[in-house]
Amino acid sequence: MAIWNTSAKYGAVAKFFHWVLAVLILLMLCLGFYMGTISDKVLKGVIVNLHKCLGLIILALMILRGIWALCNVRPAMPTNTRWWERRLERLVHYSFYVVLIAMPLVGWIGASSAGKPPRYGTLALGLPLAQNERLIDLAFETHNFLAGVIIVLISIHIGAAFFHYFFKKDRVLQRMWF
Ligand code: HEM
User: Which of 4, 112, 138, 176 could be bridged to 11 by S-S, CB 3.0 to 4.6 A?
Assistant: First the structure.
């Protein structure tokens, strides 16, 4: 499998980023909503820290993915793709980049200001922020709001992928598959 993208299909690296991030983000959404239901203090501490640690990994992967995308050609949409489909595809694409960088970033800002940064073993990776209740509230209100935005974007994205696969049969889904 080619490493780089071509004008016809995605390369192995773009596919790696796509599917690893897809699994991690779905896992993070589940962990995020599950966290609010846990009453056991010890278990909650473990799950919340896992959530934070995976969240920073997503932030790093999204930045690397953006750099890789800038260094690669983007496979062209099939010629029979209508103008509004192209616009919607671009809107969802760029919204994903903005939201999936903003989401872990605001989580990280809130957790750091609350003095509860992600801990990888004994290594605490916090931003140099003082405790600020208004900043913490704003960060997690934004975090909770963006969770909804991510779910809407994922629904449109998966809906479009199946539309191409089952109705248009134009191999758009297959070119991102292995
Ligand atoms: C793409 C990455 C991330 C996703 C998809 C995600 C998703 C979520 C979701 C769905 C919730 C529950 C929201 C709700 O109850 O309405 C949540 C809560 C939370 N997340 Fe994340 N998260 C991400 C990254 C992070 C990061 C990087 C941190 C911190 C370093 C973090 C810290 C938290 C905390 C502390 C809560 C609880 C907030 C509260 O009590 O209201 N998250 N997250």
Answer: 4
